[in-house]
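Help!! Second protein's tokens look totally different from the first
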Amino acid sequence: MTAAYLYAAARTPFGRFNGALAGVRPDDLAATALAGVLDAVPSLDRDRIGDVVWGNANGAGEDNRNVGRMAVLLAGLPVTVPATTVNRLCGSSLDAAMIASRTVESGDADVVVAGGVESMTRAPWVLPKPSRAFPAGNVEAVSTTLGWRLVNERMPAEWTVSLGECNEQLADALGISRERQDAFAARSHALADAAWTEGFYADLVVPVPGIDLDRDEGIRPGTTAEKLAGLKPAFRPDGTISAGNASPLNDGAAALVIGSDRADLGEPLARIAGRGATALEPQRFGFAPVAAAEMALDRAGITWDDVGAVELNEAFAVQSLACVDAWKIDPDIVNTKGGAIAIGHPLGASGARVLGTLAHVLRERDERWGVAAICIGVGQGLAVVLENPHARGAS
């Protein structure tokens, strides 16, 4: 077994629903991120790429089932480069990175590109296929943008409530107030705005051809907890979750180059040191990263006391706070460059975004160990531990 390293990360800016990227197909977004990350490793001969593993949560429209292969072809890679698409909903591209790292560790390939894409704007409506031709009744079109669709009637009702209702239940169970959620969301916007202003994302984000968007579209400078407190609850009349303290709908793509120490790609950003995948009741999905991170830490042979940076995908402020509380870590090490509430959450791209961001944060702060984690609808969580090999004390 050989170690797997993260050599490069790149992503597009994330666009708002019906925003600047609304006219860009998801396969073109994927190709942009793929080409961008390969530009970051100019020494890599494209013929040496053993596989491309790509995440995508919808796949129902222009994603064209295997959007990973589409991205390879559209980005101009050799037709001999294979590609697959994986779907673990919000965790799809972190899953892709985990699969890529296992492929490298096993020796099946020296270089694998991982990533993911989502255009939530362009996700189509779908119709159930009729059991016989020309039914007499009406048929309802179902949006594929987010959440449950065409639910199997055998599923217990408590499992299939909306994502927002799931997290209202989490707020009730753990006593997480609206005030804490709004303060967390305001922090996300402030830190994301500062990170862009200070140039942190300059080397991580690649432009989308023909689109005038030079940073993440959803960041709102000047957002305060007081302003967010004025927004109406989105899921319950007396609830705590609003459009301001939950992640929005977004479009975007992100990519990573993962390889062995034999890849000869220069100095790596980080070593993939531990992985975790866990599951629990579907309605408690927001809490699933807790156990996933604990598993990844155990497999890396470290504890939370060793961790200097955390990138946790902010699906909702309440679930992010629930995880941070359960881990009993310093909240100041979490999402120091902003999170999904501000930056955005294009489902299939978010896992690769948090992993790439974490690697760069570890380098900037000279921290050795970091955790990237994400919650996943229908009750799953993923986490990856990274080691910065350039930090003081690293092996």
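Here's the second one for comparison:
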Amino acid sequence: MKRRTARCSLAALTAVAVGVGLAGCAAGSTGPAPVWRGATLGPTSSATGAATPKPDSAVEVRLAFAGDVHFTGRTLRLLEDPQTVFGPITSMLRDADVTLLNLETAVTDRGTPQPKTYRFRAPRTAFAALRAAGVDAVSIANNHILDYGRQGLADTLDAAAEARYPVFGAGRDADAAYAPWLTTVRGLRIAVLGMSQVHDLAGSWRATDTRPGVAMAFDPARATAAVRSARERADLVIVFMHWGVEGNSCPSGEMKTFAGRLSEAGADIVVGTHAHTLLADGWLGRTYVHYGLGNFLWYGNSHSTDSGVLNLVVRERTVVDSRFVPATVSASGQPVPATGVGKQRILDKLATAQRCTGLAAKRPG
């Protein structure tokens, strides 16, 4: 069961949804400044604006991360019952204090198809399915959120606002796109940002001061400024990246360089998706990095069907435990926890992939 997690107030969520499309309960171009709440307040309580006490260094918070999700083909059929979409792995998602993944689709039935090979869109029940599975918020900083143009993005933001469901990494302008989603768990203030480093259509899809779009890593000054701003307001800063070379289990030089910039700017955790195969993890100084989580709820057997859930335990700013639970994308498109030989094969694959990460295997003392 999900532990009780304090989040931005419903009033703040509503105001942000009107102003910046629910890109996060943070200052946007037209939204309100972030308001932190104490961990004892319920989801409908009013925010006080009082400073949140520094979290107890002994308090542990459990985080869960998963990879790419969309609803098309066989996974679209799963939405006929939103309560059961994620199948047997649901308990693992619900068990963490905060669970995050990448929503690789526009939520729309309108818009203009973009000039690309693969285009994904989903009905609004997608948000009900995510909530039922215990997923607390999703990144929409990816190379499919504008598959149906800016109309599709606007519809996605509107649907999220109507569902009161947090999305981050894209918005109605650059301020909204680079704004973090903010939540507080037992006194630990967490800021989560989403960004994309996928080159396809990046120039026309990037958010600007006057145009909706995605928070892109190709503007490193703005990207690192967003991390530094989050660092000033949060105890724990997470960046959810969309990056990598499809089918390649090793991070590119471009990924490694940008991970270094995020670390220097103050990111505590960097987690990635996009490559459709599992990459590995490690330490970049005191920043925990997992370069790629693969497919999760997936429509076909393209690339690897290896999947899983990354579980982290944090105290204050530090990841004190990491555990990857292997899974396999099944014939239904649902990820199923792996066992026996299949589980060991995935763990061995990750151990091999760790060698090309350039990351330290252990946290510095």
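Reply: Different proteins will give different token patterns, so don't panic. Residues 8-50 have pLDDT under 50 and may be disordered.
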